[in-house]
Amino acid sequence: VPPGDDPADNNKVRVVVIDPGHGGKDPGALGKHVKEKDIVLAVGLKLGEYISKNMPDVKVVYTRNTDVFVPLPERAEIANKNKADLFISIHANSLPGSPAFGTETFVMGEHKNESNFEVAKLENSVIAFEEDYSTTYEGFDPNSPESYIIFSLMQSIHKDQSLKFASLVQDEFREKARRVDRGVKQAGFLVLWKTSMPSVLVETGFLTHEAEEKYLGSEMGQEHLASAIYRAFRSYKEYVERNSKIESRPPDSTLRNNGNGIMSTAVNGKPPSHPYFKVQIFASRNQVSFTDDRLKKYPLLEEFRAGKWYKYAAGKSYSYQEILALCNSIRKDYPDAFVIAVKNGEIVPLKEAVDLNKD
Ligand SMILES: [Zn+2]
């Protein structure tokens, strides 16, 4: 069975897409001596080698492995077609006239400050190299903040996992590669717009900073960066696979509606095998009663067993938007609450349920 096609692989990280930015007629950011497109290709290929050599169960797919131009939508398409479990876009930064240096990793989201917006604008400006880009992007204007609001929605499904991987990358850059850590950030990147899996964009350093350009251009620097991303990937894979070893009690004994259910309208008329959404409130080492103060105010409680953990989830809906609204209200009490998908009494990948429940 090819990686990604085996249903038993649902909670495993089997396919990774490595996306070296720019290429061909698009050089990306320019240093005094090197071009972004060459640096990120070298780092991407080294990263792929590390993964292939050490993780035979992972399939590595490149959006480009030579110096060619690949339009942004095609990069997402490659990832979606290959049913990737993770998308890693690799870039280098540039801020002419500024002393800025260091690494940062982005996930798709609303930018919280101007400098994050500037990075996204710069990376998105490559669409000018694409034929007929105004049609492809439905009037998208890289310079208009309003253009960015619509497209963070799709990636919001994968935001928790994208943030997890992004912070592992920054930890490795800081602790092992000894790079300056500018943090995990959010902004609207077109290349992440249509990927349907956890996705990040890594900025490996500033080509406008003399010492950093030298580092990025060196074999040693590229190897350190690639091995840092590789170690982050290894930890991420372990994390995802460890957290998905879910056993659950049969749904009949666990699905105890506590009477004040508010999410019952959307759940009629579907077979019991149809996946639905819930909000996981918290997990506990000890079993907690549904009448416990921490749980009793929430509707449609269910308990799931994962190793030594009892997981408690509320709500039930076939609408992702509806469950997201419940999740946001539960987050007022439990900031770590998140959306899960359940099928036949088991927690299943969110993506499967989202695809089956398109509004
Ligand atoms: Zn770039």
Ranges with pLDDT <50 over ≥5 residues? Answer: 3-9, 245-268
Percent of residues in helices comes to 25-40%
The chain-level mean pLDDT equals 83
As laid out across the biggest beta sheet, the strand order is 2-1-3-6-4-5
- Based on helices, strands and strand pairing, what is the structural class? alpha/beta
Give the N-terminus to C-terminus distance in angstroms. 32 Å
Tell me which oligomeric state these chains represent.
single chain
What does the radius of gyration come to? 22 Å
Secondary-structure element order, N to C? EHEHEEHHHHEHEHHHEEEHEEH
* Individual helix count: 12
Bound molecules: zinc ion
Describe the structure.
By secondary structure, the chain is α/β, with parallel strands linked by helices. The protein contains twelve helices and eleven strands. The protein has helices spanning 36-54, 72-81, 114-124, 133-136, 152-155, 159-175, 190-193, 210-217, 219-243, 251-254, 320-330, 350-356; strands spanning 15-20, 59-62, 86-93, 103-108, 181-187, 199-206, 276-284, 302-306, 309-317, 338-343, 346-348. The strands form two sheets. A six-stranded mixed β-sheet has the order 2-1-3-6-4-5, with helices on both faces. It has a five-stranded antiparallel β-sheet with strand order 8-9-7-10-11. Strand 8 (302-306) and strand 9 (309-317) form a beta hairpin. Helix 1 (36-54) packs across helix 9, helix 6 packs across helix 9 and helix 8 packs across helix 9. The longest helix is centred in the middle third of the chain and has 25 residues, at 219-243. Residues 3-9 and 245-268 have low confidence and may be disordered. The site of zinc ion has 6 residues, from loops. Zinc ion (ZN) binds at residues 21-22, 28, 36, 91, 123.
